[in-house]
Predict the structure.
Amino acid sequence: MTKIAQLEKSIKKLDRNKGPLIPLLQQTQAIYGWLPEEALRHISEALDIPLSKVYGVVTFYSQFYLKPRGRHCIKSCQGTACHVRGGKNVLQALEHHLEVSEGGTTKDLKFSLDTVACLGTCFLAPVVMVNEDYYGDVAPKEVPKILKNYE
Amino acid sequence: MKLKDTTRERLKSVAELDALRRKLKAARDPKKVTVLMCMTGCRAKGADKAAAALRHEIGNFRLKDKVDIVETGCHGFCSMAPVMVIEPFGYMYCKVTAEDMHEVARTTLKTGEVIERLCYEDPITGARIPLNKDIPFYKNQKKIVLRNCGVIDPTLIEHYIERDGYAALGMILSQGVKPDKVVEMVKKSGLRGRGGAGFPTGIKWQLAHDQQNPTKYLVCNADEGDPGAFMDRAVLEGDPHTVIEGMLVGAYAMGASQGYVYCRAEYPIAVRHVKMAIEQAEACGLLGDNILGSDFSFHIKLKEGAGAFVCGEETALMASIEGERGMPRPRPPFPIQSGLWGCPTCINNVETLANIAPIITRGPEWYAGMGTETSKGTKIFALAGAINNTGLVEVPMGITLREIIFDVGGGILENKRFKAAQTGGPSGGVIPADFIDLAIDYDSLAKVGAIMGSGGLIVMDQGNCIVDIAKFFLNFTCSESCGKCTPCRIGLTRMLEILNKISRGEGVPEDLETLETMARVIKDSALCGLGQTAPNPVLTSVQHFRDEYMAHIVDKKCPSLKCKALITYSIDQELCRMCGICSKSCPTGAITGQVKKKGQEGVPFHIMEDTCNKCGMCYSMCPFGSVALA
Ligand SMILES: Cc1cc2nc3c(=O)[nH]c(=O)nc-3n(C[C@H](O)[C@H](O)[C@H](O)COP(=O)(O)O)c2cc1C
Ligand code: FES
């Protein structure tokens, strides 16, 4: 099924009465991996919500992306517990090795680097999460080793 | 009884629920060896691999019929992850690995013998403590909200029912307790909201009950935005039904027919477990139309958040559920009067709701017997930072900071000196070591300028810089400010600029006065709780740690060596092994020297101070610890 057909299907199944926009955007992002303009235009027409408003909602929440994402998603925790145990230095090392800054995606679309405020695993601080894998007590010098695990 | 993949039958009356509970209890063999393994938080440390290995070993030793493995939620003792408890012996094994499982199966599961080396080691005496209940971390706790966490399989409603789950709902329906009586009970218990502000839950429910509108909503706030608190996550992951039962009782008391759980999307396991819990409760007739054959109906939908701290604020949360940008609006009207789609809406925190079922079944007097004059019951704290036992602890209100940090928390890491604690996250404040004997409740914390908040408790030692922490929280609130009101959008930014200046060593003494004045004005004038509380970390830290600020401003020194602009990096020429890693990692090319190769002499590396931008990369990367700070 093409992506747009999958989106069509999600729209058909939607409960339109109670705040449908955010759940639909979440489903759309699950389909595309990000939110391309054509999908947003489609949603705007289907739900009869102005595109400007759709855009407003998308940019408000940090979970939505308007650019393609890397194959592997790195989350470097900058929550309180991770901060006091050196999370900032880990982020710097990630930025250094990936040659992107936080929020960016490497040119080869291999990695996206984001920061989050607490992954709820503060006992592992500082924490880096790559896709669904947690890395705890990360020292900046371990960063290259972690990155090597991903193709 | 095999419970996975069972088809569940709809329970048509309270009597059927009670009969099911009796059947489940009777089927439990108290002597059967049961392994309780945390499959939520501990997963991050390889609990799933250990569990797989254990299953394999149980097969090898032909113990399949003799041993049950229960995949539970968080046991709380996260610094020992992955943990497992083996009943009926009560042994707790810490930091287990897949390789340990052969021995566990051969020794403990087969013969009941304890494996000393896997038991918790007392950091002071070095003695091994085999029994869960003897470990100081657990001895000083009182588990009410977390009573089932780490004990039951949260993906099976039967485990919850067996441990008197849905008994509060059953009691209300079978005894025909009137809604206003339920409200009365909650009022009498003295329960206050655990989401931050501590508003009395009974009074909130009374207000909701008194609304005339036929459509009312009940929302469970599971946004858990405080970056350093994870108790709501643990409850939702480890015991989701207790929250659902709390919502059912609340809905009955106030006459709500639709409920929402608004959960942070960063918590995928919590989302999954809540979804399963809703489905199973519906299948059993405990949720939906005509619950347990009565004329009480209540539905729950799960809404996933999309990553915005301000959405924990109740009016922003409602905007988000309605599908809008999560912007707060002025109150009044309060959500209780006009909330979701203009209807009365009651918003309660996860932990608040998890207290409800025990209050109903064990009675409000029992609950009110715990805690202090103004704050009843227990509170869960998430211990993190420079403390030995990081994790989740549930303790009675009124416990002192000293008891939490030293008795439950096992003291400061590496025996360093306790400097301060931060409660309430970005809305809270720092509490200096002088107040270590403060009995913690809503009001005592407010008196010292901090707040209870959601229960994040970050412990700081001498290595943590107060200016840096204040800057950290302000940075967080600044970037999470929704931008609607000026004091918060612009005021916080100006405050952050001043803090940045101070940590760069460019501050002047008047800055502290400016900070304090701005903080007061923002507290008074911001639109929502985010802005009104965001200055707290700065205010309290300036108040309690003025000297440390002055060290940055006047002496241009950061006593904790954290503020990068105020420290200098140098390479110890004796310790340098001439590997060159520092030079390779330096972004400004400030490090020179010659790598030592086989059969060649090298030149120790050296940092040129005027080119160094103090990023700290060399310090982080040096494999031999040869880079020094001053
Ligand atoms: C900026 C901000 C963030 C908040 N975040 C949360 C949160 O994550 N979880 C929560 O339960 N309450 C949060 N609150 C408090 C809620 O607005 C609300 O008071 C609470 O959910 C009410 O539930 P309670 O009475 O059970 O405490 C937040 C408030 C503010 C101002
Ligand atoms: S602060 Fe990083 S996981 Fe909580």
Notes: The first strand of chain B starts at residue 33 and ends at 38. Chain B touches chain A through 60 residues (CB under 8 Å).
